[in-house]
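Forum > Structural Biology > Help requests

Title: Can anyone predict the 3D structure of DegV family protein?

Hi all, first post here. I have the sequence for DegV family protein but no way to get a structure on my laptop. I'd be grateful if someone could post the structure tokens.
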Amino acid sequence: MIRIITDSTSDIGLDYAKELNIEIVPLKVIFNTAEYKDRIDLQPEKFYELLENCDALPTTSQPAPQDFMDFFEDAKQKKDSVILITLSSGLSGTYQNACMAKDLVEYEDIHIIDSLSATQALRLIVEKAVSLRDKGFSAEEIVKEIENYKTRVKIYGIVDTLEFLFKGGRLSRTSATVGSVLKLKPIIGFKEKGKLDVFGKARGTQKATDKLIDLIKQGNEIDLDEPVCIAYTGNNTSIEKFENKLKDELGIKNVKHGVVGPVIGTHAGPGACLITYVTKK
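Reply #1:
Sure, ran it for you. Structure tokens for DegV family protein below:
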């Protein structure tokens, strides 16, 4: 049997994970002394409520090697193949701890993929792996396909402020300050090696959306045969307008929706709108 595992920053809820027949390793969110397992003890709605009312920014914690070993040891005993797809190694030590766990378990039929991304991009990569598994691909074939597929998955977001990303150590003070001082809406995304960066800025969400669309059009063409996902942090008050604009300008018809969960929400902050898509080969 092929077991597909991911971490909770894929923002795949537990019910959906059961539907996909995958397993989730949770990261943790810490508010003061209260520690929560992402999407197990703490769901997005409650998280954003806590975030709005907290005095200090929460922190996040990656899974320990032992958290992965529990899954790996069980797979080894049952002689299952394992494909684990993790949050970008450019954002977290999750991938490195998974590799350490594999070494400790000493079982070769474990395949660990660094998604070089997060949230809905990681979700689409996991969903692709599931579809390949269900079509009868071998573990080795799935890994080969996913290593290629992940390079085609793009994610961009418009955030209210970069302050959360700076406080969480994901961006420099210089990058964060520029947006805050000029009251700009920054456009963020992943560059090479899974690192976050600012791709543009504009005054107001509407102009930022226009700039985001230009950015997408300048890149490789969207593969409309692959899924597109629209997601948000906090509340969804501005997401409909954002989605309709993208549909009109980019010819998108079928859209999946998602809510960015506690771990990524800690660093993005509320009020962000994101698009994830797959480029043509």
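The longest helix spans residues 119-134. The mean pLDDT is 92.
Shout if anything looks off.
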